[in-house]
Amino acid sequence: MSWQTYVDDHLMCDIDDQRLTAAAILGHDGSVWAQSDSFPQFKPEEITAIMTDFDEPGSLAPTGLFLGGTKYMVIQGEPGAVIRGKKGTGGVTIKKSNLALIIGIYDEPMTGGQCNMVVERLGDYLYDQGF
Description:
single chain; 131 residues; alpha+beta; Beta-Lactamase; seven-stranded antiparallel beta sheet; 3 helices; 7 strands; globular; cytoplasm; actin monomer binding
């Protein structure tokens, strides 16, 4: 299965008639493995800051999480494994696997819990597969 298929069929799928606004699978170095057409153009330093927060949990909290120039308030996650951000009625979930970052961006009517479920389920699967 191609990486694009994981994005199209697993991250951008309908859940209770809801769907992520955008999704991507990136390498730890910020290289794009696959992404939805709607995924924002991000800056390399944004991915570097995200990777730093996985190594030093809480480092993003004072400044916020930036992705594609959009600032998210960092909310509870799982240190070293999941970073969650909130902005207005939407947000972002980032799951770290062995080699990749699985990123889902959502907005109402999808909830943070639904986004977490979609992103983290695929992240756990890829982690178990060695990715």
